[in-house]
Amino acid sequence: MTEVATARRSRITPEREAELYGAVLELLREVGYDALTMDAVATRTRSSKATLYRQWGGKPELVAKAVRHSKPGPSLSEIDTGSLKGDLHALTRRSDDCQMEQNSALMRGLAMAVHCNPDLLKAFQEHIIEPELVEFHRVLQRAVDRGEVRADNPAAQFMMHMMIGAFAARTLLDERPPTQAFLLSYIDAVVLPALGAHAT
Prior knowledge:
The protein is an all-alpha fold and 200 residues long. Helices cover 71% and strands 0% of the residues.
């Protein structure tokens, strides 16, 4: 039974999957999570609703995977520049300012939905939050192994909080989306000093 289910779920090609995820993100930007329906996704992508449910199970899983798929460039775990500063700068440079503005608007729109919808929160935790926590831990562990960061540094457990906080707070405090220049300067002025790593 499991083999049959896996076979059914693997019919969509990577190209078609990317197309579907792009359409989901477009709809999210247009109508928001609550108004997004599987019917609308099926219509926009010329798919059957049965195919969407068979492949993703429901709206929360589809949305979380679409957001995960939209992240540009190599994953953080694939970035290894030889220094913590280099790794965090490389992570930031995966998105240009236009992409950051789009992602910021999208995440603002999803924030309340995640807060109010347990199924969406669970899907985000499984497909976005937990994998990124693992990747950040690997980057930080490499910095510890290189002697850049002390293993007992109390700020280490908050590295991802600091990075996400800067991204979110930029719009709230400055009424502007985050930019590469802002995030790079934030990493050098806040994140690296808090971790006891060199910003030079």
